[in-house]
């Protein structure tokens, strides 16, 4: 999925704490997905979000304090 995001010009922020998984996340720059592979991943889109709507992600809703820089 990381390669798909990068090839589509999207930003991806992977999360991992396991050293082997972190290394795997960096191992996406020495290959490219084919047009068929990109199309197969694109076809998985169901049009349904898997998380909260962006406008609902607020400090008030999630109760997180954002420290001053």
Automatic annotation (TrEMBL):
<protein>
    <submittedName>
        <fullName>Aldo/keto reductase</fullName>
    </submittedName>
</protein>
<dbReference type="GO" id="GO:0016616">
    <property type="term" value="F:oxidoreductase activity, acting on the CH-OH group of donors, NAD or NADP as acceptor"/>
</dbReference>
<dbReference type="InterPro" id="IPR036812">
    <property type="entry name" value="NAD(P)_OxRdtase_dom_sf"/>
</dbReference>
<dbReference type="InterPro" id="IPR018170">
    <property type="entry name" value="Aldo/ket_reductase_CS"/>
</dbReference>
<keyword id="KW-0521">NADP</keyword>
<dbReference type="InterPro" id="IPR020471">
    <property type="entry name" value="AKR"/>
</dbReference>
<keyword id="KW-0560">Oxidoreductase</keyword>
<feature type="region of interest" description="Disordered">
    <location>
        <begin position="47"/>
        <end position="69"/>
    </location>
</feature>
């Amino acid at each position: 999925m990381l390669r798909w995001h990068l090839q589509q010009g999207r930003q991806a922020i992977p999360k991992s704490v396991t050293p082997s998984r972190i290394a795997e996340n960096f191992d996406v720059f020495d290959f490219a997905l084919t047009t068929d592979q990109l199309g197969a991943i694109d076809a998985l889109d169901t049009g349904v979000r898997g998380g909260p709507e962006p406008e609902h992600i607020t400090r008030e809703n999630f109760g997180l304090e954002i420290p001053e820089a």
